[in-house]
């Protein structure tokens, strides 16, 4: 009986972890977008980003968001290639946010 319970619990954990990893693939793009929005807002509040810098970063973030939505609508599935493209654009956006926040402009 203990062996059966142990096997059942291992199967349940494996199923839970596998489901979580499968769901994380689609959620990473959205969670990165949200985090980058927070970074832009925080930079604008603290004065690290000027208004034109913040606007430019927001416009770029909106363009990425539209692109992701369009990719998901076209095929109904967010394919590996589309996800890779979105991740590359989010990486570029992240670097741009960092550069603008740390460019040494007076606050």
Q: How many beta-strand elements? A: 0
The number of distinct helices, counting runs of at least 4 residues, comes to 3
Task: Provide the helix percentage.
Answer: over 70%
Q: Whole-number radius of gyration?
A: 20 Å
Tell me about the largest β-sheet: none
Poorly predicted ranges: 17-24
Name the shape in a single word.
extended
Average pLDDT for all residues: 81
**Proportion of β residues?**
under 5%
Structural class category: mainly alpha
- Through-space gap between termini: 68 Å
User: Could you give the order of the helices and strands?
Assistant: HHH
What does this structure look like?
With 107 residues, the chain is mostly helical. It has a domain at 29-101. 86% of the residues lie in helices and 0% in strands. It is built from 3 helices and no strands. It has helices at residues 2-46, 51-75, 80-101. The longest helix is centred in the N-terminal third of the chain and has 45 residues, at 2-46. The protein is extended and about 65 Å long. The model is unreliable at 17-24 (pLDDT under 50).
């Amino acid at each position: 009986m203990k062996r059966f319970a142990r096997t059942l619990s291992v199967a349940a954990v494996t199923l839970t972890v596998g489901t979580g990893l499968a769901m994380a693939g689609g959620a990473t793009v959205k969670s990165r977008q949200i985090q980058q929005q927070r970074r832009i807002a925080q930079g604008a509040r603290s004065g690290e980003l000027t208004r034109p810098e913040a606007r430019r970063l927001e416009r770029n973030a909106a363009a990425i968001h539209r692109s992701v939505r369009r990719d998901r609508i076209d095929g109904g599935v967010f394919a590996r290639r589309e996800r890779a493209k979105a991740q590359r654009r989010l990486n570029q956006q992240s670097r741009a946010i960092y550069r603008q926040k740390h460019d040494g402009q007076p606050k």
